[in-house]
Amino acid sequence: VNLEELLVVYKKAKSLQGARAHNQEGKAANISCGDEVSVFFNIQDGIMKDISFEVKGCALSTSSSYLLADKFKGKKISVMTSLSDDEYLKEIGMSDVGLSRKKCVLTALEAARRHA
Amino acid sequence: MNVRNDFPILKRGIYFDNAATSQKPVQVLEAVNNYYLNHNSNVHRGIHFLSEESTEIYEDTKKKFASFINAPDWEEIIYTKNATESLNLSCGLCGLKKGDKVVTTIMEHHSNFLPWQVLEKSGVRFEVANIDSEGFIDMDDLIFKAKGAKVIAVTHASNVLGTINPVEEISKISREEDAILVVDAAQSAPHMKIDISKIGADFVAFSGHKMLAPMGIGMLYARKDRVADKTPLMPGGGTIEDVTDAGPVWSKMPERFEGGTPNVGGAVGLRAAVEYLEKIGMDNVRSHELSLLKKFFSLSPDYLEIYGPSSPSDRTGLVSFNIPGIHSHDVADFLNGRKIAVRSGKHCAHPLHQWLGIPGSVRASFYIYNTEEEISKLFEALEEVKGVFL
């Protein structure tokens, strides 16, 4: 993941984070580093009309939460939750993330998979 | 300290993750190589020349290590695979039962916390002594909690705070309570002179790979009169003199507690590591690290949140810190991009990080081959981190 590009996304993600109107939400935590991600969905007729998020965590978990919201807004939730980890990483353009930080990037997806 | 040529790996970048594992000098690697090329055989088994040679080498490595830590008897040195196994073995040999009390501290590495904490399920009373705001053990709390304890388990030096604990004083407390004292020396032995006879502990756990030896060799000093008659926790090859229908006749120490083929190559590497450190002199190792610590503190900007004692003389050569507002993993990741290897996260000390109220920290840990110039480069990179993330 290119640092300059990541930082642009990170700063944008930090400024945009916060829950908006929603009817479903999911939470996940990366216990080993204390990161917590919440993803909020406004779902109408099976379509994710809006996705917002709140992150207490590192640049990667924050940026990937923004990318999740950006890439999957307007789609069926099953389109996102049925993806494998690797397919998801490819979709958000982070498939080259190192092994030690993969978990940071996947926390938002984990939260989304737990939506209810 | 003119040792860098002995560590070719240092050409790859700045290595500040020595509290996790140290690098290995060529002398250690050559010693291991030479053992396998010219002396390899199983120990305590055959009567052929190679087995005798191997056994002799193996026992000599223990004599060397015993002398390095000033242990009264080399037979009190038990080899394990790492300090975690040494501490778990100590725990098993303490034989705690329902109603017994064990006291440890909030600054422990998980390996000196979990083996005791899990005994709560068996009815063992588990107490944790507090620390103060500077990162020192609250001795009043320890003394209070140690009343009636059967075991006191404490680290000699914290792997996060760097605090060097007063183990000799704690040893006195353990004697007053007639408690067994278990000391985790994984973070102290690589960095300062250890004197087992002075400490007066019953068990002291060591890690080989943090003090220049290969991974896979750990050491446990176990006082003979505490454990000589205990049943082995890992019975098998090497732990018996004889086995009959009536049962086993256990070996004497230390074989009694070293079930199976030991890591002879690792032990040979450890001996070479000890010889290497002795050649430098542990006092010189300590003074070198103190210089590095002083350099670190002299360059440290106000925005850096540093954990542990404010005086370098109270620390081993490591510093854990945060730049408020920036996640420790982000700092470590950025430094990695500048070829500076530090650790981030909770360093296998979750209870301590909960106590500190932080999700993680960045840890820079130094050793004999690190330089003041490298510390300057670390701070140049930290300035960049601040500029980029905040």
Describe this structure in words.
The complex is a heterodimer of chains A (116) and B (390). By secondary structure, chain A is α+β, with helices and mostly antiparallel strands. In chain A, 45% of the residues lie in helices and 23% in strands. Chain A has a three-stranded antiparallel β-sheet. In chain A, helix 1 (3-16) packs across helix 2 (59-72) and helix 2 (59-72) crosses helix 5. Chain A is globular and about 35 Å long. Chain B is of the alpha/beta class. Helices cover 37% and strands 16% of the residues of chain B. Chain B has a seven-stranded mixed β-sheet, with helices on both faces. In chain B, strand 3 (101-105), helix 4 (114-117) and strand 4 form a beta-alpha-beta unit. In chain B, helix 10 packs parallel to helix 13 (372-389). The two termini of chain B are 37 Å apart. The model of chain B has no long low-confidence stretch (mean pLDDT 97). At the A-B interface, helix 1 of A face helix 11 of B.
Quick structural gist:
The complex is a heterodimer of chains A (116) and B (390). Helices cover 45% and strands 23% of the residues of chain A. Chain A is of the alpha+beta class and 116 residues long.
Shape of chain B: globular
- For the CA atoms, what is the radius of gyration of chain A? 13 Å
What is the H/E string of chain B? Answer: EHHEHEHEHEHEHEEHEEHHEEHEEHEH
Distance between the termini of chain A: 31 Å
Radius of gyration of chain B (Å): 22 Å
With strands numbered from the N-terminus, the spatial order across the biggest sheet of chain B is 2-8-7-6-5-3-4
Uncertain segments of chain B of ≥5 residues (pLDDT<50)?
none
- Number of helical segments of chain B? 13
Gross morphology of chain A: globular
Order of helices and strands of chain A: HEEEHHHH
Average pLDDT for all residues of chain B:
97
Quaternary form: heterodimer
Distance between the termini of chain B: 37 Å
Percent in helix of chain B = 25-40%
Most extensive chain-chain interface:
A-B, 14 and 14 residues
- Total beta strands of chain A: 3
Which structural class best describes the helix and strand composition of chain A? Answer: alpha+beta
Helix count from the secondary structure assignment of chain A? 5
